[in-house]
Design goal:
2 copies of one chain form a homodimer. Chain A contains 10 helices and no strands. Chain A is an all-alpha fold and 197 residues long. Chain A has a single domain, classed as Tetracycline Repressor, domain 2 (Orthogonal Bundle), CATH 1.10.357.10. The longest helix of chain A has 25 residues. The first copy, chain A, binds a DNA duplex (30 and 30 nucleotides) through helix 3.
DNA sequence: TTTTATTAATTGAACGTTCAATTAAAAAAT
DNA sequence: ATTTTTTAATTGAACGTTCAATTAATAAAA
């Protein structure tokens, strides 16, 4: 039946189908059948390419993390290194078009909940949390004293995650995301310059 | 007639056991057996008192919401009505001892994720989100112009949820919760008085 | 070139497990 | 005696995994 060299194509097909299924049916109702049907493949293929359902789930989270990292890297590369620009980039990467899709947003939240009880996901999750904090802290530290930079980074990270959470849960995510971005930037930038009074 | 007053006892037993099971095993691995065993009862009793597993899950979320509402009400009653006091109360209620228990924190997050795909939970969730926002907005509006009050309320609500989320997911929730409370108060109070320059 | 062998990709059915719900019987209280 | 409460066994559906069989593509041999 198949052609050779299908590996990467199929893996991506299945990862996308996984996120679609989680977004549509929830983690609870996502099965290897609901995934493989969406990918237009058979259920057995999941075992073949990912070892099993669990392996596919982890691969999907890793994919989301990669996208987020990539978006940030691209944005940072296109600016000078000023703290203002860095903060803007961090916020924008976290609210990028891809992250705003219902697919990505709902998948993230599902992963978060599940990561509490699955070490494999938990590890990935904590790396991501630490990365956001650390990027923010670096930007703030350029203008603020250490202690203030730490506090500002924690507050900003939480505000981003919180807005993101509330938007994902709201009836009209698109609207929520748009204002979230504005208000996160406003807070981050005004905090950055709060020393100059 | 039968043993009187068993109803409320058993219901509370089962609700607590549900949260314990969700905290320990996750929503994914919580079954009517894992719940009833923790409650020291048989699995059939869940159908008797809650109609089924789903009914019990919803009752548990309603219980968490009630606790949160009660904590806020008690705190507000014990203060003057100044905006500062109100903000302090709101933050403290959201980080109360009960909310900080691993049981409550993990259960909340599980509910959040699940509420995306279950209308019954989604409704309760949105009521809660709206309540937090509305309480905050009321306090800010006492000092800030309408538009600024709205923005401040959204930012504070998100910061609370975000800190809460990050604490619940972190390795050492207790430590995270403690600082979360401090930083949320600091932001809320300084924003409240940001007009007086 | 044609034929044969090997490898890679894919399917789908069978299997064993797990779960929620149901139910009938027992226990306990009035 | 009657009603409520509780248990424990049963049922049937749903799930993830496994695996033998199939097909297509490639390589090797003739």
């Amino acid at each position: 039946m198949p052609k050779v060299g299908m590996r990467d194509t199929r893996r991506q097909q299945l990862i996308t189908a996984t996120m679609e299924s989680i977004a549509e049916l929830g983690m609870q109702n996502t099965t290897i059948v609901s995934i493989s049907r969406r990918a237009g493949l058979s259920s057995g293929i999941i075992g073949h390419y990912f070892g099993g359902k669990q392996g596919l789930i982890e691969a999907a989270l890793r994919y989301l993390l990669e996208q987020l990292g990539k978006e940030l890297k691209e944005r940072i590369a296109r600016t000078d290194g000023s703290p203002e620009q860095r903060l803007k980039c961090i916020v924008e990467a976290n609210f990028s078009d891809f992250q705003q899709t219902e697919m990505a947003a709902k998948t993230w939240l599902s992963f978060w909940a599940r990561s509490m009880h699955e070490p494999g996901l938990q590890r990935l999750q904590q790396i991501n949390n630490a990365r956001l904090y650390s990027n923010l802290r670096y930007a703030f530290a350029a203008r603020l004293p250490p202690e203030a930079a730490t506090a500002a980074a924690r507050q900003t990270a939480s505000m981003i995650d919180g807005f993101w959470l509330r938007s994902a849960l709201s009836k009209d995510p698109a609207e929520g995301f748009a204002e979230a971005q504005t208000l996160c930037k406003r807070f981050a930038l005004s905090t950055l310059n709060s020393g100059s009074h």
